[in-house]
């Protein structure tokens, strides 16, 4: 079996500035970086395996935190348009350290979602927030989109 044989095929373009990959959520070509490759594979997994509706997901979602514009890598919304999950991507060469979790936690201070996900394509951590008890719990599986929507009617 060839390496990457089971990975999805993405639309790419070769330009003078490098390789671009088509981002189906943003509907445009984006420079192909290691982090972007992780994003595209993870979004593909959410949409095609877990059946998350692509129309209820956004890449590079802008937020304002303490007057500073920031961007969440991916945000998943419920059917009412409420954010329910933030995903933060790193390149496979980047360790998922406390700094990465601090970054997504800061984004969540604005959005107040139920789930936070961090991945570098090699490791994945998902935690469910519990705002009543002011804590979070790491869970072993990503929830289905239906479960996300049930938790946020």
UniProtKB/TrEMBL annotation:
<dbReference type="InterPro" id="IPR029464">
    <property type="entry name" value="HSDR_N"/>
</dbReference>
<feature type="domain" description="Type I restriction enzyme R protein N-terminal">
    <location>
        <begin position="34"/>
        <end position="143"/>
    </location>
</feature>
<protein>
    <submittedName>
        <fullName>Type I restriction enzyme HsdR N-terminal domain-containing protein</fullName>
    </submittedName>
</protein>
<dbReference type="Pfam" id="PF13588">
    <property type="entry name" value="HSDR_N_2"/>
</dbReference>
